[in-house]
């Protein structure tokens, strides 16, 4: 469980407040989706949770304890993440990239051991990408890279996972497969997942809680059905939408 209390953040020397008084609770075994227009502060929120940016006000609690004074390696044992862009400088194999997820658990003077390799293989197996193990990461497709990065997150074995647009670069089938897989793993392992998404339909299908951000403020917050409404989508994106229902599903169609 991770609790965000009144987090407020501005970049050094900037007058613009990127995040204002953000409050929410993300529970284990659940997926929290963060939706909001480009530049609304979604990635910055992740960077604050990961300790990359130091917020000026508020606190982040992991299982009730403040993480404010933890070192990056200590945060990495609690929170793993899939960044939006990842371009390694060297053509590591996909397996090496997944194994890097174990860094937070390996002593500075040691190399990853058998247990670390097993966990990396297991993570690739769970996502159905074992066949990519020996392929250079720089020579697989954007979607395959995304799968490798999610596997790296799983191998890190942290109770909280942050996924920044996990379905970016994925084809229609893989977008759905990866989110269904994440949901299954979240339920099985009781992980707390927070993911940034652009498509509210994906949030309706795969999340348990939705946060809607606009210009660094939390405009709405609740179950997908409560938070994703015509009014809230208009307020946040300035877009008129229709809801279509059928087969037990509720989907959004923009009115353009
Ligand atoms: N290093 C930086 N210095 C100053 N301002 C920054 C910096 N990085 C981001 N910003 C600003 O912070 C705001 C929030 O950016 P952020 O990347 O968190 O948005 P986002 O919601 O993730 O956007 P997107 O959906 O496009 O990925 C933007 O206005 C952006 O211009």
UniProtKB/TrEMBL annotation:
Keywords for the protein's UniProt record, in alphabetical order: ATP-binding, Nucleotide-binding, Transport
Protein's UniProt keywords contain Nucleus: no
Keyword Nucleotide-binding: yes
Single GO molecular function: ATP hydrolysis activity
InterPro entries: AAA+_ATPase (IPR003593), ABC_transporter-like_ATP-bd (IPR003439), ABC_transporter-like_CS (IPR017871), Metal_Ion_Import_ABC (IPR050153), P-loop_NTPase (IPR027417)
ABC transporter domain: residues covered: 2-240
The family this protein is said to belong to: Belongs to the ABC transporter superfamily.
Record protein name field: ABC transporter related
Organism: Syntrophobacter fumaroxidans (strain DSM 10017 / MPOB)
């Amino acid at each position: 469980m991770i609790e965000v209390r009144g987090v407020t953040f501005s970049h050094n020397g900037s007058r613009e407040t990127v995040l204002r008084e953000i409050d929410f609770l993300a529970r284990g075994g659940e997926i929290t989706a963060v939706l909001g227009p480009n530049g609304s502060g979604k990635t910055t929120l992740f960077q604050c949770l990961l300790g990359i940016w130091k917020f000026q006000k508020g606190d982040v609690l992991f299982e009730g304890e403040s993480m404010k004074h933890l070192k990056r390696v200590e945060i990495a044992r609690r929170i793993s993440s899939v960044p939006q862009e990842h371009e390694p400088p060297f053509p590591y194999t996909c397996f090496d990239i997944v194994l890097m997820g174990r860094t937070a658990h390996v002593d500075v003077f040691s190399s990853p051991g058998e247990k670390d390799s097993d966990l990396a293989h297991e993570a690739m197996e769970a996502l159905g990408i074992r066949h990519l193990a020996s392929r250079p990461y720089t020579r697989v497709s954007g979607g395959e890279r995304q799968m490798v990065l999610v596997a790296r997150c799983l191998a890190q074995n942290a109770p909280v996972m942050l996924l920044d647009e996990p379905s970016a670069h994925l084809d229609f089938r893989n977008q759905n497969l990866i989110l269904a897989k994440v949901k299954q793993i979240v339920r099985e392992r009781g992980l707390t997942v927070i993911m940034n998404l652009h498509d509210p339909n994906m949030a309706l299908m795969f999340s348990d809680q939705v946060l809607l951000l606009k210009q660094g403020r939390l405009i709405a917050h609740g179950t997908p059905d409560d938070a994703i409404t015509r009014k809230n989508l208009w307020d946040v994106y300035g877009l008129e939408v229709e809801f279509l229902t059928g087969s037990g599903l509720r989907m959004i169609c923009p009115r353009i």
